[in-house]
Amino acid sequence: MAASLDLQTLEQYCETLYNPPNPSGRIQAESLLNYHFPTFSNTNGYNANGAGSESVQGHNPNIASPIESALLCRNLLENSTNPYALMFGTSRLKTLVDDQFTSFSTAEQHGLRTFVLQYIYEHPDLQPFIISSQAQLFAIITKLGWIENQEFRALLDQIQVFFQQGVGHRVLGVRLLTAVATEMNLPGTKNVVKHRKAAVGFRDAQLLPIFQAALSMLQSVLQSQQSDPPTEKLKEALMLLMKACLAFDFIGSSYEDSSEDMGSLQIPTTWRPVFEESGYLDILWESWKTFASPVSVLVMECLSQAASIRRSLFSGDDSRHAYIYRFMQEIMQTLTTAAGQNKLQDLGNYHEFCRMLSRFKMTYQLSEVSSYKDIQQWLSAVGEFTAQGFLSWKWSPNSVPYLLTFWNKTVGSLSSVKHETELQIEAITVNLAGAYLKSCLECVHAVMDGDADDPLESEEALLVSLDMFANIARTKHTESGRLLVNEFNNLSIKYRELIQRATSMGGAASTGSTDIKESLLVVELKLTWLVYLMSSIIGARVMYQSTSEQDQMDGEFACEILGFIHQLQVWTAQRPLYFASPDAHLHIQSSIIYFYQQFRATYIGEESSKAVKVYTQLSSRWGLNTPNQVLNVIMDSALNNLRSIGDPAWKKQEDLLVLRTLKLFMNLASGYSSVKYIRKLETTKALLKNHSAPGFKFLDPTRTSSDTAVARCRTIYYTMLSRILFAEDNVDAEFWKFIKPWEATLDRVALAFVGGGDLGEEDIRLILLGMFKDLRGFVSSITNRRQYNLFYEWFYPAYTPIVLRAIEIWPQNEIGIAILRFWHEFVTNKSSRVTFDSSSPNGILLFRETSHLLSAYGSNLLSRPITDESTRWSEKYKGIMLYFNIMSVSLSGKYTNFGVFKLYGDKALDRVLDIFFQLMLAIPVADMIAFPKLGASFFSVIDVFATDHMTGMPSMPQPVLEYIFRAVGESVPLLGHDSSCSTMACSAIDKICSFVLNWLIKNKTRISDSADSADEMLETDEIEDPVRVARDRLLSTGSINGAAAAAAAAAAASAAAGVRGSVDLSGGASGLLSKRLREQQQQEGAHWLVEYVLRNKDVMNYLLVVLFSVVVFENRNNHWALSRPLLGLILLNRDLFAEYTSLFVQAQLPDRQEPLQKLVHGLMEGIETNLSTANRDRFTTNTNAFRRECSQMTLMPVSPDDSGIMS
């Protein structure tokens, strides 16, 4: 066995790994197993499947390659019977294959795959989880070697040996095929193009024969009529295989599983005979009727897939119609026969049957379905089934959306069917609307009895169903709407009676009052459902398609709902708190908010004048003649939601209601027309004058919430008010009135800071915490220069000292975070709003204040220890992130001339940069990468710093430079959905390389131009790579100074070896330099950044190798960003690039070296030694072609350490 471990000890460690007695035991077992079974992976850690990579302690030196480790795993599988050891060996093999497959030769790949296949064949009685893992291993090997190994493509022939044995082996064979089909369908993470090529090859060569073999075996099993346990396993395995085949991503669309109910299956044309000639549907439907659950559920899943194959697959209309009619025939038979009804009594079958109906209608047009000979009976059967499904919602609530989808799609294309069919569907929709209404009202009783979850608690999911119901109900709007109005009127009458009874009884709790309270709650929740249903129908109105009768019904809906709102407001004002329920209050008001949203979207806007019938109804009953009047009602009514009754038991519901109300206001304030309307309302004007009303408890800073969305209510509130305030142009006077309450509050705080007033420290802290949240929201909606200058004029310099004082007193408190977030918004120059007059010093003064703030906060951060590693984000890193964000927007704001600070000896910029460097060094690079928000802020400021400020500094500390280069180097290879960090890191690298390269070119050219005469120039045939020569000459001077001299010396060795420069880099020999040029070399020195780059070539070499590897081996969405710095790195060190690419080519298999060498040469074809736009674009084109061709080959990466060229 492995080195010094005997088999028994190894098995014990494997068992400890998967079933540890304690955490330390698992860690010890993991470390030992990683030592003896290394994966040679670059990542550390342990995966749940036991395939973790080796620990930081390294691995057994006697194991020199992945193939040797794989042989040890194979040895373990051959000699052990312990299930934990077998699981570890299989999992470790999967990791080795997945990470190191290119290091295996073709023979080794073939041998390992043959071993796995033979092992499964010889051990059919292993535990299912081991068999599953082994099958996955076989599938991974098959997938990765599909392109290069011809033998792997004869998959079905190799599995035939399993089918020639008993049922047990046939089950194994089917599971192997399922594993391969599933693995082939998974997107690759390392080489997406190659993996897709393998998937396409598998699809074209093997998937159809596999599916046909599964169909043939299913038919045989069906005919055998056996139901013993082994046969049941075979049935299940066959259905899973067929399901995997049909679920294959045939065209590379890669849609997520969550959206698999959308769209049709893009079955290839070669599969046409299966669906037209093989009796596929007959076999599936007969299987569904014959097999018992849960296998029958799998069959119905396959039927659901079969119902959604693309329409264009069929050879003609006749064959497609025959397929559709067969489906419809079986559906009607299922719905109208006792056998079919009994089958649907199983919950799984019922749910999948509903799903099949939905997908069938989503795929095939109503015009095709309606041509079925028994269409009327079919529609009636499905309609009755749907109505029963609505009423049976408690039994299978997740099936209702599928039934809604079926009819939503059906009513969406009524214009394409015959008139009698249209009338029938319209009649059915009225029945469905009534059934759905009844189910919603019955839901109230079920929820109160504790028999079901409350759908009202998940509003997002509820609204999806309401949208579909609205389309169905609006098909026959008048009839369906009349059902809702009648029910609404009946409940309203009952509601008034209960209110009268409750009022007469008073607020004391008694048996009678308890009954009335419950009855009131039931009626209120039923009315809530009706408000939701009516509102959804209003929102489903389609402009230019709605008739006056439909608008009239919408008007009735609106009048009834407004009547309920009025009645509710009166009752709320007088009811004893005993009769109220916080949950019911939240649901009722949420439904009213939904009504406001739908009505605003439909009937308030530029086209509202065309909806005459709606406003006729509103005018006759409520005196609302115009959209402005309705908006006033909305604002006045919704504002009540911002007020609190003061009961702690209501806090959670009130907070959620405030959040939903503010989102309504934000929606109203976001529309161009509606915000203009709102701005003119008396309610809004009053709100702007009294925006900090005492009744708005959410403005109380002592009112906290664990919900971050609720905690942002203050910010959202003032964002909305700011939008409304600035909706008009000339608002100076109103602005000064608006900020009066803030002035009074801040003046009290300022007085308290100097020892006056009656505010205590905690009072000041809470006041400022809320104040800076308010100011942040207010400033975030400022969009132009005039608005910003108004705020700036008020806030600076009167109140900026309060900011500095607060950050000095409470840097570790949440108020510190609130201040930084406000300041970040305050100094962000979005939409060029931070623009001052050319003679104004405000931009400089603004940055000076920023400097004071960051210096104070940064100094505290530096002295703040991390007491608990698990809380380092909240304790320190969150503040550092905000520091970086403020610094980034300040340096890139373009409203400050930073040269002024150096010119007049002002240390404002130096202080900020000094603390920035210290904060940077205080964070381990691993943490900078591990925390996405922190990393994004860091690389953003580094990108900005490298753009305008880095090269202007007289010098930078060596540790800071090393940290920056290390951080950008480690961020580039990271895989992730968000590529912004690597993009910004590449941008910073590109700017540094561009500066160094342009500096060399510039100084080289100046020396050439400074030569005494043309005859001092060297001949063209003596020219070498000018950058390399300049670099070598500079390095040979001992201390890098004398840029001109170095550049002139470089000219002495310039060569024309294939490098064409847009700038002539050749110059006179060093011995022919004039006296004037020698004097210049003594006065001028190399820039410190040039010196660092040239002196620390390993840093740039590492970046070059890493970027090159990412371009070759990874599929990124930011290839353009990756190619930009790569060109500069190559031009700075062509020798290293040539050496590394040579090693890279030699590391590949012999048959791939020659074509790869041609690709490497093509990468630099036509590239000049400059960074002009044309040259960059040409290199990007070459890079894309190079990457595309490399993706077609299986290549082995060569890491910087393995290359041996980094020293």
UniProtKB/TrEMBL annotation:
Q: Does the keyword Protein transport apply?
A: yes
From the Swiss-Prot or TrEMBL record, state where the protein is found: Cytoplasm; Nucleus
Molecular-function GO terms, alphabetical: nuclear export signal receptor activity
Secretion signal span: none
Read off the Pfam families from this record: TPR_XPO7
Tell me the ranges covered by the Exportin-7/Ran-binding protein 17 TPR repeats domain, including all copies.
444-705
Task: Give the superkingdom in one word.
Answer: Eukaryota
* Any GO BP: protein export from nucleus
Main location per the UniProt record: cytoplasm
Q: Does the keyword Transferase apply?
A: no
Q: InterPro entries, per this entry?
A: ARM-like (IPR011989), ARM-type_fold (IPR016024), TPR_XPO7/RBP17 (IPR057947), XPO4/7-like (IPR044189)
Q: Which UniProt keywords apply?
A: Cytoplasm, Nucleus, Protein transport, Transport
Q: Which GO terms describe its cellular component?
A: cytoplasm; nuclear pore
Gene3D superfamilies for this protein: Leucine-rich Repeat Variant
The UniProt family comment states: Belongs to the exportin family.
This chain belongs to the protein called: Exportin 7
Protein species of origin: Mortierella hygrophila
